[in-house]
Amino acid sequence: MNNRGARRQPEYDVVVVGAGPVGSAAALACAEYGLSTLCIEEHGTIGYPVQCAGLLSQNAFHECEVSGKSVLNEVSGAEVVTDSGNHLLINAGVTKAFVVDRGILDREMAERAAAAGAEFRLKTAVFRMEGNRLFTRGVEGHQEVSYKVLIAADGPRSSIARLRGMKRAGFYLAGVQAEIICENDPLFVGVYPDASPEFFAWRIPIDRKRVRIGLAGMTRVKEKFFSFSQRFPGSSLDFVLGTIPIGVMPVTYGDRAMYVGDAGGFAKPTSGGGVYTGIRTARHAAATAHHCIENSVFDDASLSRYEQLWKQDIGKELEQGLLMFRMRQTLGPVETGRLVRALSDPEILDIIRQYGDMDRPASVMKELLKKPALYRQSGMLIRCGIRMFTGYTL
Ligand SMILES: Cc1cc2nc3c(=O)[nH]c(=O)nc-3n(C[C@H](O)[C@H](O)[C@H](O)COP(=O)(O)OP(=O)(O)OC[C@H]3O[C@@H](n4cnc5c(N)ncnc54)[C@H](O)[C@@H]3O)c2cc1C
Q1: Separation CA 257–CA 153 (nearest Å)
Q2: pLDDT at 387
Q3: CA dihedral in degrees (68, 113, 96, 232; nearest 10)?
Q4: How far does residue 180's CA lie from ligand 1's centre (Å)?
Q5: How much distance in Å is there from the Cα of 103 to the middle of ligand 1?
Q6: Given a cut of 80, is residue 21 above it in pLDDT?
Q7: Which one of 22, 135, 189, 275 has the fewest beta carbons within 10 angstroms of its own beta carbon?
Q8: What DSSP character marks residue 313?
Q9: What distance in Å separates the CA atoms of residue 57 and residue 51, rounded to the nearest whole number?
Q10: More confident residue, 40 or 384
Q11: Given the CA of residue 153, which atom of ligand 1 is nearest to it?
């Protein structure tokens, strides 16, 4: 590729590629450390197209550090519905999660980063890298940008990871979702394990008359989605296709770059949610960038601090989540029916209400494993759980 004609820019302390929630969180944190920060985004509008169900736990929402203007609904629990007719309602009685407009949320996050001093360059895509320089094309023509540290927040198909030849996430799920005009219960999210046996299908209420229905999986995803959507008769106003990476890439840093959010495969393997974990990684990457720049050290050993930080914070959860994801692949409708029946025990429901945390599901798993009733009903789950917490394979 010929770089002649590419305009050279001043060197930035940090360049963030991608202005999704994770890129904007990284740009904000870097700007707050006083680092000169540029955030590059290939789309002309931040937050669009939306590729998300917009369900955020209270914690995840607070991690975004935004006002309430993106919040469309508050939900206080979930109902699990299996094809065998088993039904489980988990009602926390208080708000457990928010349903948000991701377009508005992403934009507000970028606005905060820009107000803190980060520079944004839209409609500009990175297409080549060389040393600590990257080459972009976009509305301002071809440009060459140098950085001390790069934060790759360019989503599940990360071109930075590809250009750098990094090993990627272990699994990729395809997600399909539509917004439907349809009467529904606005207080509870619906989970339908049998509609997508490789993961699950969902119903997320926006209000009494509007709902987001979707599913994620690895095979025949559109076909399964159209069959699932028959349960929700109504006009569709919005249709989304997206990718969910499952499994963190084996090494998340190298050559002055750190991979955060979906670019690093940080979505939760249990739910596919990536906003909470992604923002946590953004903060760790910004702290590492600050440390490297303050000390003028840019070797891989210095960058490895990033991996230590995220592992201390969410490493165990992600590892255990991946085991649960693998276990999910072995559960058919008979087992999910049995499991839902076992979970309907009032004592077990109490534990779920007490320890349930969408972002850190390992704690509720640990408590559930202490219950013999669940042992009898669902040996496979328990075997997997014991392996998770003790390392022993039964
Ligand atoms: C159907 C579906 C439903 C989901 N539902 C939920 C949910 O309810 N809750 C939840 O927490 N998570 C959910 N997720 C996951 C969530 O959307 C992602 O984890 C989250 O958006 C990750 O944020 P990110 O900033 O890492 O990546 P992204 O949001 O993908 O942002 C990456 C950005 O990088 C830009 N970019 C890419 N390449 C380049 C390039 N070469 N140059 C410049 N810019 C580039 C892209 O345009 C994009 O704006 C869902 C995902 C799907 C597919």
Answers
A1: 10
A2: 52
A3: 80
A4: 22
A5: 11
A6: yes
A7: 135
A8: I
A9: 17
A10: 40
A11: 26
Neighbours of 330 (CB within 10 A): 11
Over residues 300-347, the pLDDT tens digits come to 999 999 999 999 999 999 999 999 899 898 888 988 888 888 888 888
**What average pLDDT does the structure give for the chain?**
91
Closest CA to 259 of 26, 6, 1, 9: 26
Q: Give the integer Cα–Cα distance in Å for 201 and 225.
A: 8
What is the sign of the dihedral through the CA atoms of 51, 352, 69 and 283? negative
Confidence of residue 359 (pLDDT cuts 50, 70, 90): confident
Q: Is 18 a pocket residue for ligand 1 (Cβ < 6 Å)?
A: yes
* φ/ψ of residue 152, rounded to 5: -90, 110
Q: Strands 7-8, 141-152: parallel, antiparallel or unpaired by DSSP?
A: parallel
In the prediction, which pLDDT does 204 show?
A: 97
272 in ligand 1 pocket by Cβ < 6 Å? yes
Answer whether 154 contacts ligand 1 (Cβ < 6 A): yes
Q: Please give the share of the chain, as a percent, with pLDDT higher than 90.
A: 73
* Ligand 1 mutation pick, 244, 317, 318, max ligand atoms within 8 A of CB: 244
Measured distance CA(220)–CA(177) in Å, rounded: 14
Q: Which residue owns the Cα nearest ligand 1 atom 4?
A: 52
DSSP state of 176: E
Owner of token pair 């931040």: 46
Q: Is the CB of 279 under 6 A from ligand 1?
A: no
Quick one: which H or E segment has residue 137? Answer: strand 133-138
Which residue CA neighbors atom 29 of ligand 1 most closely? 20
> Does ligand 1 lie within 6 Å of residue 269's CB atom?
no
- From the CA of 52, how far away is ligand 1's center (Å)? 7
In this structure, what token pair is assigned to residue 228? 């699932």
pLDDT tens-digit series, residues 253-289: 999 999 999 999 999 999 999 999 999 999 999 999 9
Backbone φ and ψ of 87, nearest 5°? -140, 130
- What is the pTM assigned to this prediction? 0.93
Report the number of secondary-structure helices (H) and strands (E) in the chain: 13, 19
> Ligand 1 pocket, 175 CB below 6 A?
yes
**pLDDT score of 194 more than 80:** yes
Domains of the chain in start order, with CATH, are 7-49+103-169+249-323 (3.50.50.60), 77-97+171-246 (3.30.9.10), 330-390 (no CATH)
